[in-house]
Design a protein that fits this description.
single chain, 3-stranded antiparallel sheet, elongated, mainly alpha, about 50% helix
Length: about 200
């Protein structure tokens, strides 16, 4: 009886150890190696560097409060927003009074600096992660006048930077056109350093 039990358990233990080694060690190491060999920038977080200093990631939104910079989507990640360790949405539903009040206040604030009949929705709504690095081209173009005025630049020059920063949908049809706010602000600083 004990021999039969050992005979029955042994293959299960051997397979458990084998698959733990294969799927828990060998497979992750192989994928890490392939990622590092073929896509090293992406495998290391798509980091953006200024010399040896990491200034951000193409994948994580940052807060830009100055009028001289383009602003991204609002963030509900963490107490002050844009906290990658606390990535999350606000979990406020469409019937939430707190959400409606916050959006109404954001629209009122942006209406003063954003010309046009309406404020683009992505400038007043958070993403699910609270760290979306992109805004729509409409949201970027709506901020051109404010940024141009703050930097004392011709509007056409800032519009050209935004147009150059628009990323097309993947393969021409996956997703929507978008603008990475950090990359746009870095291009803006390269073109016209803020004094």
């Amino acid at each position: 009886m004990l021999t039969d039990l050992k005979t029955a358990i042994r293959p299960a233990l051997v397979l458990t150890i084998l698959f733990a080694a294969l799927l828990g060690i060998a497979y992750p190491l192989a994928l890490t190696g392939v990622g590092q060999a073929l896509f090293p920038a992406q495998a290391n977080g798509s980091l953006i560097r200024d010399g040896n200093t990491v200034v951000g990631s193409e994948l994580i939104g940052q807060k830009f409060a100055s009028a001289a910079y383009f602003h991204g989507r609002p963030s509900a990640a963490g107490a002050d927003g844009y906290d990658a360790a606390a990535s999350a949405g606000s979990n406020l539903g469409p019937a939430s009074r707190a959400l409606a009040d916050r959006v109404r206040a954001d629209v009122a604030d942006l209406s003063e600096t954003t010309p046009g009949p309406s404020v683009p929705p992505d400038l007043v709504t958070t993403s699910a992660s609270g760290l979306d690095p992109h805004i729509s081209p409409e949201a970027a173009f709506s901020q051109v006048a404010r940024v141009a005025k703050a930097r004392r630049l011709p509007t056409k020059r800032v519009e050209a930077l935004v147009a150059a920063a628009v990323e097309k949908p993947a393969l021409g049809f996956f997703g929507e056109p978008r603008v990475n706010v950090l990359l746009l602000n870095r291009a803006l600083d390269r073109d016209t350093p803020q004094s």
